[in-house]
Amino acid sequence: MxxxxxxxxxxxxxFVSEAEHGDGARAAVAAEWDxxxxxxxxxxxxxxxxxxxxxEALRAGAxxxxxxxxxxxxxxxxGPYGHPHGGYSxxxxxxxxxxxxxxxxxxxxxxxxxxxAAPDPVESFVYQPGSPxxxxxxxxxxxxxxxxxxxxxxxxxHHLTAAALGLPRDYFxxxxxxxxxxxxxxxxxPPLAAGAPDAGAGGGGPRYGEHTDYTGYTLLLQDDADAGxxxxxxxxxxxxTGEWHAVAPTPGALVVNAGDLLEVWTNGRWRSTxxxxxxPPPGSPAARRPRLSVPFFTGPHDDAVISAIPTCVGExxxxxxxxxxxxxxxxxxxxxxxx
Length: 339
Known about the structure:
By secondary structure, the chain is of the alpha+beta class. It has helices at residues 13-16, 23-39, 52-66, 70-74, 111-114, 137-164, 173-176, 260-265, 285-288, 326-337; strands spanning 9-11, 42-46, 87-89, 123-127, 181-189, 208-211, 217-221, 234-238, 244-246, 254-258, 275-278, 291-299, 305-306, 324-325.
């Protein structure tokens, strides 16, 4: 019998369509979720209810935007990556590996080795409603529709999280109301130029550096063309064994992982796991085509103070992390990621 994959596939529909499921089904999913977040910090979810048409409209809008000339995209640059109103960032604006620290589930990394990490070969557009510069027409409607759907899914995941940790159903609500800190990022990896040093195994490094995510859950829409094999390009997760595991795309699914503040909240019970985007092999089809991934970063409102929750501390289990203001943590991480 084949062993279960390190990143499990979990049907979250009992928390999405609650009237159609009983308490037993929700308890079973909550136990699966606790195992996934404790053992690897990642899960692939189905049953989330986001319509395929909503996803495809967003992808089409992203391809139209990133296919423009550089000067047209630069009109949407509002400032450094992490600007509160989002906007466009060109290739070379970010070096995410510089953000790794002791909050990571791997115990952190050698600061000296990461201080000079190379910029990531990716450009991005972060969609934020209310920006003083309206987003490009190709993205405006699709991004808003997709963002609204993922906010709905996030609420369901918080109910699932509360069940998994033995907390009241709306425990996390006050930390996210009235306005959670969320960022919808369209990440575009241009084709690697012929003759250039390719990223990844046998090349110059990953396509997006090793890092943990900063705050709450990240809900990721993968590029369906990722190979899903180690060293072949695409999302890779660092397992407890020290091995990198490639996460193969599942049609219609989202990848969810826990960020640093969820590790703080759970007193280390759940993992904020190091992951990266591996570079494709030189000359491979993946190296010659662009890649699009869409992470939706979520976290509490900036003034929320995060400390270990009651069910994760006790006799013999003292709090491992000092309380931290969510906005301060995010600003510190963003500040060291910018080139």
